[in-house]
Design a protein that fits this description.
homodimer; 332 residues; alpha+beta; nine-stranded antiparallel sheet; three-stranded antiparallel sheet; 6 helices; 13 strands; globular
């Protein structure tokens, strides 16, 4: 078996099998980093250049590929199998092994937003791709196997379960209210104010009213934009500014680089039927509940799908705001 | 804020807020274990007895309670809030601080199955309870805060997301095929055989065809039983035997006690409409992908809801079977 997807008939979800990944590179020392530039041609890295700005390449251990072969179908009805078609890309954020997103100038981060938009457009055009998912796993607590700052793009052959759940709920909301649920959430968060971490004229960041993780923050376009392709160049800079501020608040909160999962939710790429209910937002979910304790996903979350949060969104938002205010204060 | 649930309008899921839980007891030394019997009345534990068989009590740091007060409702439409009504119980498996499930005789484990059935029946009868969820988080890798072997029961005021997704898929399957999807899965796993870990005349354990975790095992009743209340005393012993064998295979696999989340899926308790599509099964999801490496849930799983598995179910099932065969072999 290699590169196949199997369907869970008891939920409808697909699992992707990528059995060559067990041997992938695991926390190499910094001087053997495969994402650093190739400074010595005798010892090439995965990037054959002496310097670079951003680099995008196919994951060396892909779980989805354009040409995954048709698997042997199971003989009878209850199970279903499909080729693991799609793409998995790596986006290296910089040739500096230590330059994480939070430490980049906003202008540079805005160019990364352009890279994300480019990958969304290009991968989304492929026949075998239905949904382009941009994300970053940061920190060993999130299972990161390479420290060099990088993100990933998975181009799935269908809309994955969590975005599909959001789209379905947004369709229901639209049918009942005639509005985009994210537009309504943004309006409400701005009126309430207590959960807002930061924002500008285009973008707002807040700990959602229903936060599942103590320091969960959503970075959302204020106006309805279904994907990065609807976001203008000035708005991309505004998005970068807000994202950067949130990441700096994270790193300042406990005094160490905060681990997190960052995931970007945009419109599916196969057809236009989702434009009115897709609303570009970035979900940041750090696992920490205190400086020394993690929130573990266990029985209630993994078995039940029901999250328990031990903190108050209004308070964690205030903590993150306080970090930004402290950093903005003039030094004595 | 205390003891409230807030609804995510972008998915329909509820988050439970339990803000007093940040200070809960965290990995105390064995001689201060709050789940051990009270051997010295001057130093009482949470169990006021010198010895016991099983103990069930309300979680000292509950996230759901019978009398959670009505929260202050948010002023406008997009957000919803509800009291965190329900129950969270702890089931201590034994007064022996070190007796884990895998090391209990099957007869004793069958009596624990009776305790689970009792809690399912009693909590399910309460007006404020719609779904009774029995689970165990085992091992520090799963965030366990007390080592004394114990499980938990959450009685939710509505059907939580993952069981609801299963029930919805099972309804769809029933509408299309006229059969219970779990009955069909059990039949298929028994015919295929390659993913079966062990079983007897009443119960079968298998790495599902679509396994999300490398060593995920489902322990499922062979005949249609909607909940433990439909399972006879002899069948409960058969269930205990199979569960015990799987847990022993886990512990033998890498030579250390395997961490896992165990969750039991049964019929919702509020009405009978789910009986034909609810099929009692226990899902075991250990986080290990090798002896030294964990499967981390990150971008694809948490942000996308899409699982990637680096192993082959047919192979991991064979590994678990080999442990059981080795243990059964006569010693030279």
């Amino acid at each position: 078996m290699s590169g196949e997807r199997r369907r869970d008939p008891t939920t409808g979800d697909w699992t992707t099998f990528a059995t060559h990944r067990q041997d992938r590179t695991f926390l190499p020392p910094a001087d053997q980093c495969p994402l650093c530039p190739t400074r010595d041609p005798e010892h090439p890295t995965e990037v054959p250049r002496a310097a670079y700005d951003f680099v995008v390449f196919d994951n060396k251990f892909p779980s989805l590929t354009a040409d995954a072969p048709q698997p042997v179908a199971p003989p009878s009805g209850v199970y279903d199998v499909a080729p693991a078609r799609g793409a998995t890309e790596v986006i290296v954020y910089s040739d500096d092994h230590d330059l994480k997103l939070a430490d980049m100038p906003a202008e540079r981060l805005a160019r990364l937003v352009d890279v994300w938009a480019d990958r969304y457009a290009e991968l989304g055009r492929r026949d075998e791709v239905a949904y382009v998912f941009v994300f970053e796993n940061k920190g060993e607590a999130m299972g990161v196997t390479l420290h060099h700052p990088h993100g990933q793009v998975y181009a799935y052959p269908e809309i994955p379960p969590r975005p599909m759940r959001e789209l379905t709920a947004a369709l229901d909301h639209f049918a009942a209210q005639g509005t985009c649920v994210y537009c309504d959430v943004v309006a409400r968060e701005r009126v309430d104010g207590v959960r807002v971490v930061c924002g500008n004229e285009s973008v707002v960041a807040y700990v959602p009213y229903w936060a599942r993780y103590p320091y969960e923050v959503h970075v959302t376009m204020r106006r309805h934009a279904a994907s990065l392709l609807d976001v203008t160049a000035p708005e991309r800079l505004r998005l970068a500014e807000v994202l950067r501020a949130v990441l700096r608040a994270y790193d300042g909160l406990f005094g160490f680089p905060m681990p997190y999962v960052m995931s970007m939710h945009q419109a599916p790429t196969d057809d236009g039927q989702w434009q009115h209910v897709s609303h570009l937002h970035i979900e940041l979910t750090p696992p920490h509940r205190t400086a020394t304790k993690l929130k573990y996903l266990a029985g209630s979350e993994l078995g039940g799908g029901a999250f328990v949060n031990d903190t108050v969104p209004e308070r964690t938002a205030a903590e993150l705001r306080a970090v930004l205010e402290r950093d903005r204060a003039p030094r004595p």
